[in-house]
Structures are given as structure tokens and as C-alpha cells.
Task: inverse folding
């Protein structure tokens, strides 16, 4: 429920177990007043904010001689910069005169039934019965920029989603150098920061530490959400456990560079900001142009981690996944040939594996890397999405017929974002790979990254994928991504827009996934990024299942899947059983 109290100038968001309140104060600043267990909806909880004259905490000009009001102290709903708040900013605007600041004041609000959507970006969805939307418009009058804060309230799941849209309504060009999706201020700092970290072969391991003075952050500047950190974190009571304590889970529905930072300030307050990483981000807004920051999702649980996780799981299953296997339908158990054959396979070998799998009741046979172009190892072939008929005589059609005859469905591996220099595609279009003019681009796994910020390149790749998919009935795609982005520069954009390439790349990936999903709604797409290097809420919107890790050792998987489960439901985890001794660590664990 969303309640606007005219008299108090408060906005209160009520869910089953929580309450969230904002307040427009006397200077039209939007304060964050409260987030926690339900309190009296009619009371103005900003009364708990204490004002005093603090040295070195400036006062806004309109406060006149009142030295007790400072943006540096007040909890902000969406923090500004350069005008008196020295804590983590959410937004930074560069004006044509070179100034860098942002000063936001309340304009108006709007209520909508149902959940807002974000064209081109992944987001929770919900009809009129599931969710409500509140939009609060703020304005930076000097910059002539409007900032719309979006709130989606899903009462049943205690889920509050947030997104931000920045519009240049002036007549001059403005540059947006930072645009977080979420800012959350607390009048306390005695909390733990829980993050999920690791590396390739050991993703999302739980780490927990108390907040301390200064800024603590996790993030990625690899172009993907990464194996190293995850865009899901928790802030909680220091004694919170599975069953007790107040905790706040924050998820960014985004698959590229991100930052999740918590700051413990001088007055023992704290601020949490999450969004696109400001590294190499700068978006040019011409007059009437807008930028939309990706969605963030919050769940507060007054009853420990279990309640928070279960609410995230319910919300993700019901309002985020676009799954060809609807609620209650079991996804197929699959056999994948990767560790059995690597690149060295033929149709006959795959059929031998499928026969054994079929006898065990496994329903889906997946052909991994190596079926296309001249791909006999990982140095060549990416970009050439045509079937290698030496390995697969009769193409996919023949192979799928043989798989279907075993009573199984067929799935295929792809890595559409990448190209090898040793490929027909690269020989024809060397300029299609991300590179900085004058620098030889870094290789990762011997491959380069296609400039997916460009529609012409995406269109070409999509036409290749379509011709593969139209050659045989495919029920499943494993969409892989096996390196981090470097040399991020696009030939299609002018110099002042190069700070847009990382984000435009992610939008490009989403665009292609969206097209696939629309054209082939029956295909289950499983996300993969060297295992779990892009396991996030953004990808889950398009790929309702994600390869959890390239580490398929049963014991290691306990740790990986335990960390993953704090935010993401079991049905989203590609969970493997593999031969022993395990390929990655040599451990022998009985089935
Ligand atoms: C990545 C994936 C593996 C496999 C290989 C193929 O590493 O995580 O499962 O598909 O690529 O090259």
C-alpha cells in the first residue's frame, strides 16, 4: 500500500512485514525517514532525525541563519553532491560550464496501479493485483534536470523495487557522470555488511563484517557482474542470524559494471548506495533526452535471513523469471558433454552419451562448445555460427532426430558476444571487436569481445543464430560469456560518448536476449559466464536458469550454492553432478 499524507508531506510504503517512509521537508528536500518493521503510518518518522549545528557541515543557502540544517547530516532519499552532503553521492551532473554537482528538490508525485516497467531493462513485473507504483519527481533547477524516483511496491513479498530516470528538460547538453539506482540512509551504523565474493570456480562465498568508519564496497569493472563479487548484498543487525534480527537485502538487476558501497559517517549514521559503477561511466543527455538507471530491489526482513531469502525467492519465481517452464513445472534434468569430450566429439559420441543418459531418465541432451566453425580448441571459431559438418554430418537436423528418437529433447551451447581472431567473422570485420585505436586489444581465453553496443553487429549475430535455430528443433540454449571486457571503445560513438559503451554493451546483450525470448518463447535459455560470472537478477529475467559454477565438485558446490541461495531460488541454479575424480580439484566424492 502507498500512502501520501498531505499534512505531514510523507510518503509511506507498506508491505506485509515492513514500512518505508519518505518526507518532503521545509526546503523541499526528500528525506529518508524510516525503513523497518511497521510503525504508525500516520506518524511523521522524520521527527527522529536530530538537527544540530555541526562544524564543517554547510547549510543550504535558503536556510539563512539556521545553522542546524545540513544535507551532510540529514538522511537523504537520493543523495546529491557538491552542495553540502559529503557522503556517498547517488548522482553527479556535469553542466556545459564544467561544474559538477547535483541539487535535487521535490516537485510532485504520481501513483499508478500495477508495477512500472523499464523498456530495454530487466525488471520485476506485476499487474494491478500484485503491485503499485509511486513516482516522485525531483528537480535540479539550475541544471534543468528532472529526476524521477520510481518505487514498485509488492506487498505480499515485502519487495520494494526502485529505479531512476533522469531527464534533461533544459536547452543545453548535460552529462550524467554517476547515476545510482538506490540510496538508503540509516540513522545507525551498528550493522554488518554481508557480501558474496570469490573467483572463477568459487563464486558467491558469504563474507560478513561490521561496518567501520569510511566506505566499504564491492563491485565490478569487468563488464559483467563477475565471479568476484555479486550485485546482491545484505545490511543487517550485528546479531542477525537465519531466524532473528533485522536485515535488508539489496539486489541490483544488472549484469555489467556495478558498485555496492556502504559508508559509515562521522555521526555514526550510514548510507548504502548501489548502481552502475561510476568507473568509465558518463552519459550525455541532449535536451529532452533521458537516462534510466537499472532496477534495484529491496527486501527488509525483521525476522532474520531465512525470511528475507524466502521473500526474494518467491518474488523472483513469481515476478521476475520469464520461464517456459511455468510455476510448478519441473525443468528437465540435462546431460552436457563438455567435461566428457571437450572439443573432441562427433555426432556418434554425443549419441552414445545421450543413450546412457536416456536410460537414467535424463530428458535433455545438450551439445556444448565445439560444434561450429573451425572450433577444435579455444583459439578459433567464435563468431562463425555455422555447423561443422565434419563433426556433425547431416547438421543439427540429423543429430536432433537421433536425440529425439531416444525420447530426449536437444539443447545447444553458444557464445554470441565473442569472436576469435582466427574466424571468418574477424577476418571480414576486425573492427567489430572492442578495441582502442592504436592499442592492440588484450585477449582473454584467446578471444576478443564483439562491440554489442552496436545494433548492426547484434543484427548480424542474431541472423546467424536464427539460421542455426531454424535448422532443427532446439529446446534449450546455454548462453556463455567467457572473458572480461577490456579495451572498451566503440567506433560507432563520438569521443564524448565513450563513457556510454560499457552500459550500451549490457543493453545490447539484453536486446539480443529479448529478441531470442520473443521469437523462441519455448526455448529455455540457461545463462553462463565461465560458470557463475554473471549470476544476477538482470540475467535471470532473460535466462531463468544460470550455470552456477565451472566447479562441479559436490563439496565445493555446497559452499557456492549456499551463498547463491541467500538471494536466488534453487530453481535458478544449474546444479551439476559430474564424474570423479573431479576435473577441477581432483576430489573423489561418492555420488
Ligand atoms: C565455459 C563454461 C563451460 C563450457 C566452456 C566451453 O567455461 O562455463 O561450462 O561451456 O565454457 O568452452
Result:
Amino acid at each position: 500500500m502507498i500512502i501520501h499524507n498531505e499534512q505531514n508531506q510523507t510518503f509511506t510504503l507498506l508491505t506485509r512485514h515492513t514500512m518505508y517512509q519518505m518526507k518532503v521537508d521545509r526546503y523541499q528536500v526528500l528525506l529518508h525517514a524510516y525503513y523497518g518493521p511497521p510503525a504508525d503510518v500516520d506518524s511523521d518518522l522524520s521527527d527522529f532525525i536530530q538537527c544540530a549545528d555541526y562544524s564543517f557541515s554547510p547549510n543550504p543557502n535558503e536556510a539563512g541563519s539556521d545553522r542546524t540544517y545540513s544535507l551532510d547530516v540529514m538522511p537523504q532519499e537520493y543523495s546529491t553532491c557538491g552542495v553540502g552532503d559529503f557522503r556517498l553521492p547517488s548522482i553527479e551532473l556535469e553542466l556545459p560550464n564544467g561544474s559538477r554537482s547535483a541539487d535535487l528538490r521535490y516537485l510532485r508525485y504520481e501513483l499508478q496501479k500495477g508495477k512500472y516497467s523499464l523498456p530495454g531493462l530487466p525488471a520485476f513485473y506485476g499487474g494491478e493485483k500484485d503491485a503499485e507504483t509511486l513516482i516522485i519527481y525531483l528537480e535540479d533547477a539550475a541544471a534543468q534536470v528532472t529526476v524521477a524516483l520510481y518505487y514498485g511496491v509488492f506487498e505480499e513479498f515485502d519487495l520494494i523495487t526502485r529505479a531512476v530516470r533522469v531527464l534533461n528538460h533544459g536547452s543545453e547538453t548535460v552529462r550524467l557522470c554517476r547515476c545510482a539506482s538506490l540510496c538508503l540512509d540509516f540513522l545507525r551504523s551498528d550493522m554488518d555488511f554481508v557480501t558474496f565474493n570469490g573467483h572463477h570456480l568459487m563464486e558467491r562465498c558469504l563474507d560478513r563484517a561490521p561496518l567501520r568508519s569510511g566506505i566499504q564496497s564491492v563491485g565490478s569493472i569487468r563488464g559483467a557482474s563477475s565471479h568476484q563479487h555479486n550485485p546482491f548484498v545484505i545490511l543487517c543487525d550485528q546479531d542477525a542470524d537465519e531466524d532473528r534480527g533485522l536485515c535488508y537485502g539489496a539486489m541490483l538487476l544488472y549484469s555489467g559494471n556495478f558498485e555496492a558501497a556502504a559508508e559509515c559517517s562521522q555521526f555514526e549514521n550510514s548510507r548504502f548506495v548501489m548502481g552502475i559503477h561510476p568507473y568509465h561511466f558518463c552519459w550525455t543527455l541532449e535536451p529532452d533526452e533521458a537516462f534510466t538507471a537499472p532496477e534495484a530491489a529491496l527486501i527488509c526482513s525483521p525476522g532474520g535471513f531465512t525470511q528475507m531469502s524466502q521473500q526474494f525467492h518467491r518474488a523472483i519465481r513469481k515476478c521476475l523469471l520469464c520461464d517456459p517452464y511455468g510455476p510448478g513445472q519441473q525443468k528437465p534434468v540435462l546431460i552436457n558433454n563438455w567435461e566428457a569430450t571437450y572439443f573432441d566429439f562427433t555426432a556418434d559420441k554425443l549419441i552414445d552419451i545421450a543413450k546412457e543418459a536416456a536410460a537414467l531418465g535424463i530428458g535433455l541432451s545438450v551439445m556444448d562448445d565445439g560444434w561450429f566453425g573451425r572450433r577444435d580448441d579455444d583459439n578459433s571459431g567464435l563468431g562463425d555460427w555455422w555447423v561443422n559438418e565434419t563433426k556433425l554430418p547431416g547438421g543439427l537436423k540429423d543429430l536432433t532426430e537421433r536425440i529425439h528418437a531416444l525420447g530426449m529433447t536437444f539443447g545447444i551451447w553458444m557464445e554470441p558476444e565473442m569472436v576469435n581472431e582466427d574466424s571468418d567473422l574477424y577476418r571480414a570485420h576486425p573492427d567489430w571487436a572492442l578495441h582502442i585505436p592504436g592499442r592492440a586489444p588484450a585477449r582473454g581465453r584467446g578471444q576478443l569481445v564483439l562491440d554489442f553496443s552496436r545494433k548492426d553487429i547484434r543484427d548480424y549475430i542474431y541472423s546467424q543464430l536464427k539460421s542455426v535455430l531454424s535448422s532443427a528443433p532446439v529446446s534449450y540454449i546455454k548462453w556463455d560469456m567467457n572473458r572480461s571486457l577490456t579495451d572498451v571503445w566503440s567506433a560507432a560513438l563520438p569521443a564524448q560518448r565513450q563513457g556510454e559503451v560499457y552500459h550500451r554493451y549490457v543493453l545490447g546483450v539484453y536486446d539480443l536476449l529479448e529478441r531470442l525470448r520473443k521469437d523462441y518463447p519455448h526455448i529455455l535459455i540457461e545463462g553462463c559466464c565461465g560458470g557463475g560470472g554473471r549470476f544476477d537478477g538482470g540475467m535471470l529475467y532473460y535466462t531463468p536458469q544460470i550455470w552456477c559454477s565451472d566447479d562441479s565438485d559436490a563439496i565445493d558446490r555446497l559452499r557456492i550454492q549456499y551463498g547463491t541461495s541467500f538471494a536466488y531460488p534453487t530453481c535458478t541454479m544449474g546444479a551439476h553432478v559430474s564424474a570423479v575424480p573431479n576435473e577441477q580439484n581432483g576430489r573423489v566424492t561418492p555420488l
Remarks:
- The two ends are 49 Å apart (CA to CA).
- The longest strand covers residues 174-186.
- Residues 442 and 486 are 7 Å apart (CA to CA).
- The chain has two domains: 2-319, 334-522.
